[in-house]
Design goal:
methyltransferase; 3 strands; alpha+beta; transferase; Type III restriction-modification system: methylase
């Protein structure tokens, strides 16, 4: 889990990214979880008063043997979102 907090004037924006290391032997078995992580940003929101300015983002599984290009692309998109938001 990665937390990034940005303070701009009186507004505070908090980004929470979920990334899970996953061994190659479990990539297929836990595919459902990776799919869920991919849906977090668009399908789930914080609804309480304290959740204003709070963004949750799921990243693909971290797997050094098979998924490095995907994790690089996802972290790059995540970084761009933080800069743009």
């Amino acid at each position: 889990m990665l937390f990034i907090r940005e303070k701009e004037y009186e507004d505070v924006k908090t980004y929470q990214a979920y990334v899970e290391p996953k061994g190659s032997q479990l990539l297929f078995e836990d595919e459902w979880k990776e799919k869920f992580l991919g849906q977090i940003e668009n399908n789930y929101k914080i609804n309480d008063i304290l959740g204003r300015g709070y963004k949750i983002i799921g990243l693909p599984f971290f797997n050094q043997e098979n998924r490095m290009s995907e994790i690089r692309q996802s972290t790059k998109r995540f970084s761009i979102k933080i800069i743009v938001m």
